[in-house]
Amino acid sequence: MSNSAPTPSTNRLAHETSPYLLQHAHNPVDWYPWGPEALGRAQAEQKPILVSIGYAACHWCHVMERESFENEQVARVMNKYFVCIKVDREERPDVDQIYMDAVQAMGIQGGWPLNVLLTPEAKPFYGGTYFPPGNWVKLLENVAQAYAGEHRAELEGSAERFVQVLQASELEKYGAAGELVSTAVNDEKFKLMAYNLTQRFDRERGGTNRAPKFPMPSIWRFLLRAHHISSSQQLLSQVNLTLREMAWGGIYDQVGGGWARYSVDAEWLVPHFEKMLYDNGQLLSLYSEAFQVTQEPLYREVVFQTVNWVRRELTNPEGGFYSSLDADSEGEEGKFYVWTRAELQAILGEEEPLAAAYYQCTGVGNWEHGNNILHRRQSDADFATEHMLEPHVLAKLIHGWQKQLLTARAHRVRPGLDDKVLTGWNALMLSGLLAAYRAFGAQEFLDLALRNAEFLRANLRNGPRLYRTWKNGRATINGFLEDYALVIEAYISLYEATFAESWLREAQGLTTYVLDNFFDPAEQQFFYTDASAEPLIARKKELFDNVIPGSNSVMAHNLLRLGRHLENTDYQALAAAMLGQVQALAAKEPQHLTNWASLYVALLRPGAEVAITGPQAEAFRAQLSRHFLPNDVLAGSSTTSALPLLQGRAGTDQTTLYVCRDHSCQLPVHSVPEALAQLAQ
Question: Which residue in 15, 86, 232, 599 could disulfide with 31, CB within 3.0 to 4.6 Å?
Answer without folding.
Answer: 86
